[in-house]
Each structure stands twice: as C-alpha cells, then as structure tokens.
Amino acid sequence: MRILYGVQTTGRGHIMRAREMVKNLKAKGHTIHILFSGRQPDMAGRMQEFQPFSAFQGLTFVTERGKLKILKTAMQLNFVRFYQDIRHFDASEFDLVITDYEPISARIARRHNIPSIGIGHQYAFMHRVPLSGDTFITRLVMRRFAPVDYPVGLHWHHFQQPICPPIITDAMPEDVMPDAKRILVYMPFESLQDTIDALQPLSGYDFYLYSAEVAQASDDKTMHLRPLSREHFLRDLGKSVGLISNAGFSSMSEALHLGKRLLVKPLSGQLEQESNAAALRKLQLGMTMATLNTEAIRAWLDAEDHIAPQNYPDVVNHLCQWVNDGTWSSYKTMAQNSWN
Length: 340
Description:
Layout lengths: L1 E7 L3 H16 L3 E7 L15 E4 L6 E2 L2 E2 L1 H7 L2 H10 L7 E5 L2 H9 L4 E5 L15 H9 L5 E5 L8 E2 L17 E5 L5 H8 L6 E6 L6 E3 L2 E5 L2 H10 L2 E4 L3 H10 L2 E4 L6 H12 L4 E2 L5 H10 L11 H11 L5 H8 L2
Parallel strand pairs: 1-2, 1-6, 2-3, 6-7, 7-8, 8-9, 10-11, 10-14, 11-13, 14-15, 15-16
Antiparallel strand pairs: 4-5, 12-13
C-alpha cells in the first residue's frame, strides 16, 4: 500500500513511535510518505530516516517553566495556513492514512475519503482511563484534534478497554547493571536552571540531566549535563535506577518497561500529562509531584520503592501485521489480543 503517515512533532515520543512503525511497515513492502507538523523539522532529529517527508506548521502549544500558556498558544495558532495546507496537499496517490495524533494528515484523509488509522497514546483517552484536569472543552479538543476512522490507543494498562501496550523501541539497553546512585533526569518543559536548583541540595546521587538547553556535555560534582541524544539517553536510562521527568508517555513507558523508579512532574494545565500522572498513581508504578521542588525529590529518593520490569510485548509487529492484513474494523479485537 501507499501510506501517508502523519507525525505530531511537538513531543519526541511521537517521533520514536513513528520510527519503529515506519521501519516495520517498509520492511513489509509498503511505500511510506511522512507528514510532520508541530515544530520545525530540523528539531525532529535524524530526519533522514524518514525520507521522503513533508513538513508543515500544524498546531502545537506554548509552554513556559512547566506550565501550558493558553493565551500564547492561541496567539500563535494559524488556522488559515492550517486549512490551506490540508486543501493543497495532493493525496491522490495514497491508499491509507496513519496518524500519530497529527491533525493535518487526519483531515486530509477525511477530505479525500481515505481510510484513516490513529495510533498513539492520545487515542486511549477516548476510552475509560484515568483522567485528571479534564473538562468538557478539553475532552472535545482531544477527540477532534486528529479524528480517524480506526483509533488505536496506547497505554500502560488496558483498563478493560480496547487499548494496546506502549510501543517500545528495539534499541532498548539489555542486561545492563544499574548504578544504585545514578538518576536520569529529563524535564523538557522545565527550565534547566530550575531543575539544577532543585537537585543541587541533594547529596549521595549522580544526576544525569538531558536538556535542549545543553550544547555540550559537562560534569560538575553530582551534576552531569548532557545534550539531547536518543542513543545516549537510552544508554543512561539502562545504567540508572530511576527517572525524574515530566509526564511524557514515551519516556515513562521506557522506564516502566525496564523497571526503573519513576518520579514525574506533569506539565501544568495539559490534560495528557496530568492524566498520565493520575494513571501512574492508580497503577502504583511511581510517584508524582505537583511542582518541581527539592523536598518532593528527596522524599522519592528516600522511599526506595521498586517496581518489576513491565516487559511490554512487541506491539509494533502486531500493529503492522494488522495494518498489512487490512482488517482495520477489527481494531478492538486486535487491541485485546495485543497484550498476549
């Protein structure tokens, strides 16, 4: 098949999932064209792996120091350009649209009557899963942001709903002995200095901080600053006993897959991250903090709780075989079987 694959690049988790899915679909003989939207394409990383691709402005949100800025988000939205990009896109060659919560590709599918599949964490919120901070408006936006014919949600538990396990990269570190004093830190929606200030009073641990604000690796006593690198991040995740992060789905999924301790601070005002924190508490898989502060981190370090590796199944091959078979209306049964 000729597939248009939409990827929302506001979060790096969408890119990771798409990389695994596209690699598998191409191996099955499908022709894939990637449509990115959400931020500049040079920010997506290793873009050559996604050739051929198109990049559009799309729709995204603005954050500052761990909070969603609603007014600034509204001011930067360009709906005229958004609908122009949908109208002018030549979709005549495509048989199927798959989208990881990317709104332009979803609407291209609707405009041209092309079957559409949504594969992503956000589609899990169409079902009864733990929610926090939701209102009628946020639920409406969540449902209509990237509407599809066959929505396939991903989550850490099925909650007795037709939901698949999270997609885990096949590049995860294996058989790595973690350092009991090494903590990985990834707070992309927080200020780097705020994060450092919260960690510096804590002794007895080595903190490895990954941030877009870091240009070159440096080490200063317990603080080890690292520029963003997918390969190095996964390596340090394997070597660490725990992860402190915002409540992004993919990084949390990777930590849970390996059995790492989790402390998360959700992006304030953002339904997905606040709900991820609620799910983490409900499943008793980690701890949360409402604000970035030293005492909350100290309490987590002192708790020394442990979880077993979740060892999520290989859902990528399962999903791609389902796409390949063309039995898309059976997505609920497919999702139920994916946990096996």
